[in-house]
Amino acid sequence: MDVTNTFGVTITRIFFIITLNFNIVNLNAQSYTGVMFDTQEYTRVQISSDTIEVYSEIVTECARRCALLDDCCVASYSEDTSTCVLDHSGSCCIDTFIEIGWRTIKKQTANASPTCTNCLVLDRSQYKIIDDEKTWQEAVDECKCQGGKLIEIETKKENDFILTELESRNTGALGYWLGGYNFNNDFDLEWISNPGQDMPFDGTGVGEPNNPFTELCLAAWEDIDFNWADISCGAMCPYICEFSAD
Ligand SMILES: [Ca+2]
Ligand SMILES: [Ca+2]
Ligand SMILES: [Ca+2]
């Protein structure tokens, strides 16, 4: 009897999953109000000060609401409760977590050039300073998701430009993550894009880097006038994304 029941439940689950997978295909890259959305089943966005919950009869209504909001890129919808959670942080790089009964829809940006609003411009690069504090790896991921990279400073000109900006901001931040990491188990740091190469320009402060085994990540550190220092990668810091026109 138990075996039969278990078998029955298993069969039901299999059909449930097949049905949802079919929906993914149907919903993928669907247009709502002229805006294309991708769908990810079984996930939802975290409730935060950047989210609002509204009632929506169907997922299309939830997508339409997001499509009409300039600062909404990601929304989650629950068919069970007709709840639509709209994220209005302006970011398309929102952490989601797995939850049955929910799906997350995201405005398509894959083929669009990276949008960089309120960014600093120097030569062929744009820079976005983000005050939201993250670990070094989280900062790497966020910049990548936004279509750029954690900043890599190749010249004195670029370094002076960024330093001047950081000094003038005076936000009290301990430092800002840069895209340097100690690859190759040695005593210096390399840019993520070129882990096998010495940095073409060295902006490290006096006495830095000083902890090649415990401080593997690079930051522009306030204490030493935003010169560079090796820092423990788990520290929480604001960071700078670089978007290159090349
Ligand atoms: Ca650069
Ligand atoms: Ca190294
Ligand atoms: Ca250090």
From TrEMBL:
Any one Pfam family match given in the protein's UniProt record, by short name: Lectin_C
Protein name: C-type lectin domain-containing protein
Organism: Mytilus coruscus (Sea mussel)
UniProt keyword annotations, A-Z: Disulfide bond, Lectin
Taxonomic lineage of the native organism: Eukaryota, Metazoa, Spiralia, Lophotrochozoa, Mollusca
Gene3D superfamilies the record matches: Mannose-Binding Protein A, subunit A (3.10.100.10)
Entries under InterPro entries matching the protein: C-type_lectin-like, C-type_lectin-like/link_sf, C-type_lectin_CS, CLec_Tetranectin-domain, CTDL_fold
MF (Gene Ontology): carbohydrate binding
Record has Disulfide bond as a keyword: yes
Domain C-type lectin: 122-242
